Amino acid sequence: MDAVQAEVLEESALRFVISSKWLDRVLARTSDYQADHHTKEMREGPIGPVDNSDIVSPMGYATGLRDAVGLPYVPLRPGLIKGVDYEVLPSMAWSKIIKWYNPGPQYPDIIRYTHNTAEPPQQNLEDEIYPPVFVVCRVTQTDDVEPPPTILHIEKFGFNADPRGRGQASPEDSLVIVSSRQEVFQDFLARVKKYAGIPLSTKVKVWRLLNGGNASNGEQRAENNDSSGIDTSKLNIPPSKFMQLEVGTHIEALNVTDQTNNPNYNGRSNMDLFGLCRDDTLLLEEQVRDSVGTEFMSDSKAPKFASANAKAASAPTSRRTSPGPGAMLTRGRTRKDERTRGTVGLNNLGNTCYMNSALQCIRSVEELAVYFLSNQFKNDVNPGNPLGHGGSMAKQYAGLLEQIYGSNAGGSVSPTSFKKTLGGCQPLFSGYGQQDSQEFLSFLVDALHEDLNRIIKKPYNENPDSDDSTVHDPKAIIELGEVYRSNHRARNDSIAMDLFNGFYKNTMECPVCDKISVTFDPYSLLTLQLPTESAFQHDIIYVPFEGKPVVHEVDMDRSSTVGMLKQDLAAKNGDISPERLWMIEVYTHGIYRVFDNQAQLSEVQKSDHIFMFELQYAPTFLPLPTQKSLYTTYSRNSANNEIPSMDSPRADCFTVPVYPRKPGRYTSSSSQLTMHPFYITVTRDEARDLELILKKLVWAVSQQTSRPILSEFAAVTREEGERSEAMMDDDARVSDKSNPSEEDYVDVQLRRATEDGGAAAKFFNSPRSLPEDLVSTMFTVNVAKPPSNTSAFFSGGSNIDESSIRPLASRVHQSRQSTATSSESPVDSDVDEDDKADSGVDDDKADSGGEDAPDAIDPLWIPDPEEITSRAGRRKQKAKGKKSKRFLDFAKKRPKVSRQPRRGSNASEPQRSSKASDNDDGEYYIKAGEAIVLDYTNEAINAMFGKRHVDDGDVRGSWLSSTDGQGLERIVDPKYRTRRARREERRKHGITLEDCFAETGKREILSEDNAWYCNRCKERRQAAKTLDIWTLPDILIVHLKRFGGNRSFRDKIETMVKYPVWGLDLNGKVGLKEDNKDYVYDLFAVDSHFGGLSGGHYTASAKNFYDGEWYAYNDSFVSKTNECAVLTKSAYLLFYRRRSANPLGPAYLQDLVLQSRASYSNEDAPDSGEDRLGEPTTFSPRGSSSNCGAEVGEVEQTEDKSAEVMSTLEEEVVNDDYDEDELHGSIRLPKSSRKDMFVEDDEEWLPNDDDSGTNVSEPEVDDLLE
Q1: What is this structure's pTM?
Q2: For 1-128, which CATH class?
Q3: To pair with 1151 at 20 to 30 A between CA atoms, which of 348, 502, 663, 820?
Q4: What is the pLDDT of residues 666-704, one digit of tens each?
Q5: How far is the C-alpha of 194 from the C-alpha of 153, rounded, in Å?
Q6: Quick one: which of 443, 434, 433, 416 has its CA closest to 126?
Q7: Cα separation of 626 and 620, whole Å?
Q8: Tens digits of residue pLDDT in 1104-1115
């Protein structure tokens, strides 16, 4: 991956495609390239050899095809996304992967090439992942021609001698040829002619089969094509069959001449230029040269057979003379084939649906189309504008309109020349990837504006800031707005400004000095925020520093950060400082991820177990935000691998993860992680104090068990002779856990004492030391380092480096003086352990003593409720002829310890001599970037955590926490419930365009990353921003902001937005009304996006200004539709025009449109009235099979049209078998009377409220914490 990031792309470089699914298994185990989408399963099991099966198409390895260079070609599944499904590696990186993870010769490399997709000298290098694959057939001169001996004919070409490389299992099979969008067309044609057995001296005419099968990604041919009636699986097509095909319906001719036998030809036009950029079926018609001079048999049907498409295809490159200004290029409403002008599709040139849909919408603006078709634009071309493109974009757009509205236009045209120029002007659109339709449209409007800007020399006029004394004066604000607008007009004057230009009013309020700044900004597309919440709903297990863990049900916006979540939870838990909260993800008892404050909540998956720990202090050693690579989709977290020295300021205070472990199930010589990790915080000075570190550990453990171990510690200390006072007599409160009437047994349990610093602080600061034997009977304390492939915060799943584990006490040469070295156990005993061994005293008998002798108290001893203790706290057994109940009757059998782990407690831990600590010189028992490992004994786990259900006779403790939140108290904020209810309401009924306008105009606080510079404070401030619409254009393009985030992470909002077709009244939303205009708008086009972020498809619906009908445009396919169909939840861009009895725009533009209308109004008349754009009409959805129009009926009042249509749609769209793909073309809207319409597609996750626990039997104690 270092090679990938450092690589500089070169044209024609060899590239290798690899599955992201397999690559993630490798990168998930590294520390430098972990990504948010890496799951835990990716780290489990062996990596295995390279596996690309998920991206290779079925039978892809078996096609045998070869590319244009002659190397094996492996076809991929369609629709794959780079960074999601696959990655592309350079040769150096691929060679290393093959060396380490070779899949074998049966799986050839997936080879692709880098090409420059921009027009030289500009450069935009991209990998061609999906090169076009063509099925090629030969139209023979006679019906009885035998297949040529192609195998012998091409043996001289070496690697192509194998017919499988061109898709032939036999000579009768058609060819399957892998090409490239950048391959020179004449080279491709020469190659294909040789494979087909056609001499280079024989010219051919190339035809494309329309709607008739393609190479299917190189795997199979289309057989017995239904639309054409020919069998494209065979190489030869009889001429009799070919002559039955109709141009424009079955086939179309490519506007290219065969130059393969011309040695003087030096043209370099590539496949992309002729629209050969995706899989297609091509027919090669051979030259005939008959006696009457016909060169091709298809010439006999000219001109009807070939002229229509040939003229249309040649338009962009012919540079032919256009009619002069003032004269329309076309006359009449209909074409020669009697179809309405402009009902023409645009061929998809390879992921160009984003461009096609936007072009179909904007070219439906009558005023703009007439301006170009009348060649008025030529008077305004500004080739010297440095911000323009020399007029090239304007000229190409004009040429495209000529193709679309020409009288000889076919069913569709290929915007190849337009796309090439577009890529040359903006390399972002030069490649093969899917782009944003809104981004393209914004660029197009701006490019047309700059190419046609009538201002030759732009003056420099500085816009003033608002005056503090007049910011609340409406008249002064209007004057200020006019200054901004006049300054803008002085530099910008074009057809784009005449139709699309409006202004925002932007108000900023400084939170410090209260300065108010008012400015005005131009726009050509009005962006509206959607008032929907992309919710992050999750259970957060909150572990307080003092108290029981609880579960917080969180419901926040998905774009919120971890820092925002910490602020929210801190306020709900005693208003603590958010800096004291530490958020991790736990997986298989280990730390999978430590979240930095800037991480987004959207990175958390639904199945993740998220813990939020309240720390004692705010740490200074924090995880750094993830740095996203500019070259790959993976994150580089190398900064989090750097462990600071103890002299670094970052080590002033640091967190120490604590890993609980238990003895292995089948052998006592191994340990395994149990429960979940927890944390203690240690300052630099505290890291030198072993006693304090142990107290912090004991305190943390005491908060996770229901057993009052701190009280038992105090009792043991008193039995050691400390009778003068209790260990924490004034620092704790007394809790009587026995029968209130019994005063013999009093249990001391620590409680929160906020008035004097808390019980924890009293416990830590107590001069009393912990009994050494008492700690060692619970667990041994070890220190460990992180593995080399994880961060310094132990994230990544590998957790701890087993080889680094050593006793904590061995870190410092001179350990502290033990407080309990005078006795072998926490109580006085008459028998020393060594003396017992020498004298042969029975251990069991020594444990129990005589009938009248009191038992020695075990470190974790709990008396029977019937046993009596003195009021002074001295525990004596009452002689009842019965022994006390014990669960840890083993302390006296242990040798004396000095914070050392017991011998043989974990065979996986290295057995170190006293010299081991010499290698770890220093004064710190624990350092930043290290962890503590608590190795519990089985007895301790049973005594502290063994209780699983309510049982009065079971005096063991229970675990108060959980690995997944089950069984914990749940806390739900009422505001979250309100938010869910509001979201559910919107799910049922959708939102309106009015809601979107209101959301966009809301006052918002800027984020820290987007702070505003206050010229009074001279600093950046998180100001309050309010955005208002100041002026509105005649043509209003509304951009519904469905895509949130940035280009590396985006989220789509699928909510239905109800928008009116007729009568969008914006009079109450515009700040400045110009010339007493009435701001009521009618819809005339919709650009829709179907699908998700990783792909999707754009289509358009637009109203034709010749006949006033609605048409659906899906790339090259066009069909008539109606107003019901344009109301879709997939709407992305809405095109409105201001209602007016006259054409829109300045006087010159109105005159052009009126001349245009007059030029065809006398020639032919509409058969259903003047349903023109922008004029009041009656609702009549003609030409549709939908029952929408019949149910809506004829509505005379235009203001009621939208409500009527939407009401009908609400009644019908909710049906379960409703298919939104049917919103275009011949739509079917199932009938239904249900009212819960407009249900979102996105699934809303709700946490499980089942808190019920399960009872287990005693033998299951070993598994109780798994």
Answers
A1: 0.62
A2: alpha beta
A3: 502
A4: 665 678 899 999 999 999 999 999 999 999 999 999 999
A5: 8
A6: 433
A7: 18
A8: 999 999 999 999
